[in-house]
Amino acid sequence: MEPPITLIEAESGILEKTRSNAVDAVIDFAGGTMGGITTVYVGQPLDTVKVKMQTFPTLYRGGFHCFMETFKKDGLARGLYAGTVPSLAANISENAVLFLFYGLCQKVVASVLGGKDVQKMNPLENAVSGGMAAFFSSFTLCPTELVKCRLQAMREMATKGQLEGGLERLKIGPWGLTREILHQEGVRGLFKGLTATFMREMPGYFFFFGGYEVSRHFLTPEGKNKDEIGPLRTIICGGVGGVSLWVLIFPADVVKSRVQVQSVAGVKPPTFREMFMKILRQEGVKKLYTGLGPTVVRTFPATGALFLAYETTKKYLGQLHSYITGDS
């Protein structure tokens, strides 16, 4: 019995895709949202360690020491999971917008390349799409990252006498801190460190999506496409993409964290260049990589979980759309 002509066309790529760009955008947005939620709960404790070590590198002997001291003094909720609410807000908004614009930027790049099929874009073309998408996601990320970083480094700032109100300020919480920033500094206060965020995000996500797509290319079994590599390989590819991002842009993240933590009301925040040069002159190149260890340990499972959640959500929402519209 011969297979239906539609099956032959679908397998050969002749059958035209009927799903609209708007539906694709909604699916990408939903996939990014689920990925953002997943990555926070997997990686938040070590993200807290990273920020503490970046902003106060002389207080801790290493990542494990920072982890244990934070747990002993402040526990899980106010210690290792400090800043979880703004972190959730940051990751959900960032990843939802990031993956939404990643899909849109893929279509733009494919159009520039003469109407190339998005599914047949190579890793470099996908990497360029990721770098472009990061420009847009930076606007959603910067305010929530600012609140998160200040909350995570609040104990250290109070201990060093750099925080008005001392240790009592630890009770303020994310919403209270946000209201305080808006009252004292206005909306612009939430965007301190935006230039540093651009400097980190755009090259970072070039390597993030590039690393992910290169890994998928090499881990795709013969006779299958890259969407059929399974959960384990997806997690590995996501982990490779995350590690690629952080190893290559970690100095920019150190600078961003310090700019945001030190940009308190009434004080002109240092620029990206000023902070970068200050660290180089006063502390040396090594301090630009303080906290890289716990970041890499956190990143592999966290970004692996992100991409697994993203790809799984895309798959099932795509199937649901096909079922509803009768395209299955």
TrEMBL record:
UniProt-annotated location(s): Mitochondrion membrane
Pfam assignment, any one: Mito_carr
- Source organism, top-level taxon: Eukaryota
Solcar repeat ranges are: 23-108, 121-218, 229-316
Task: Tell me a Gene Ontology molecular-function term this record carries.
Answer: L-ornithine transmembrane transporter activity
Keywords, ordered alphabetically: Membrane, Mitochondrion, Repeat, Transmembrane, Transmembrane helix, Transport
PANTHER family the record matches: MITOCHONDRIAL BASIC AMINO ACIDS TRANSPORTER-RELATED, MITOCHONDRIAL ORNITHINE TRANSPORTER 1
Q: What is the protein name stated in its UniProt record?
A: Mitochondrial ornithine transporter 1
Q: What organism is recorded for this protein? A: Elysia crispata
| Taxonomic lineage from the root | Eukaryota, Metazoa, Spiralia, Lophotrochozoa, Mollusca
